[in-house]
Amino acid sequence: xxxxxxxxxxxxxxxxxxxxxxxxxxxxxxxxxxxxxxxxxxxxxxxxxxxxxxxxxxxxxxxxxxxxxxxxxxxxxxxxxxxxxxxxxxxxxxxxxxxxxxxxxxxxxxxxxxxxxxxxxxxxxxxxxxxxxxxxxxxxxxxxxxxxxxxxxxxxxxxxxxxxxxxxxxxxxxxxxxxxxxxxxxxxxxxxxxxxxxxxxxxxxxxxxxxxxxxxxxxxxxxxxxxxxxxxxxxxxxxxxxxxxxxxxxxxxxxxxxxxxxxxxxxxxxxxxxxxxxxxxxxxxxxxxxxxxxxxxxxxxxxxxxxxxxxxxxxxxxxxxxxxxxxxxxxxxxxxxxxxxxxxx
Length: 345
Ligand SMILES: [Zn+2]
Fold this sequence. Notes:
- By secondary structure, the chain is an alpha/beta fold.
- Helices cover about 25% and strands about 25% of the residues.
- The strands form four sheets. Strands 3, 4, 5, 8, 9, 16 and 17 form a seven-stranded mixed sheet that branches.
- It has nine helices and 17 strands.
- Zinc ion (ZN) binds next to loops.
- Zinc ion binds near residues 40 and 42.
């Protein structure tokens, strides 16, 4: 069937809206009619070419969304036609069927195991989870990336406990989810660090007890004015190497832990003193907040839906698929935290 997709044809250029033909389903693949897609820094990096040379163009993109199953390939057992699903880049149960190849007027269009900037997508079974009960399909796009990454960093990687002092560097979509998790875990204080004033305001709405503007002075001193020994736990969600260092340096000696979530540009490096480790601090990495979709998404859905935070407001700006480039520009400028692409518009 024909469907509309926003394609990356050349890095550094706007996405191109194209009518592409979906392929016959391979074993383990599922055809999904997308209802909503989110977008995050990963797509901004892909479009800008910040991940290095892109040998897959032209290709589909987007890695978080919700939709309805239209058809399933052979051997698919996890979902069936008509099921409402969450699409996520984080692999869960089910088959890894590889990326689909679409046809665009005779040209091959590549895609990964999941893509969402399109009205219909061929997705690997293991990138789908059932829409949790009671979860609206728009809010559920957060389950595709921002919630498992941000909440997972706090609950799964750092295993925050009540009373832990927690700092979150970068309060965009993922950082906001980390702040909510920090607050729900009983973190005290919960400190949001972001140079953007509107994102600092957002941080205060979504769990931060304090916010810091890192351009206003020394960040570590500002954190120690709130948590004198440093924080127990820190989350980095900016992709900036210097901020990754700040995150670990903001933690307390003898047990402080920091986790890096942000993706740095290809080739980026930082230099750090090994004394950081000798003082008993740890710098950790994570893949999707160490989240396991089939185990964690129902739990994160209940936390997002418990009414403590105005979660729907995180997605206040809805865009048509045709306006995807505007959505990405607004995300890049910091005008919005998390765009919502509504395929019904
Ligand atoms: Zn993402």
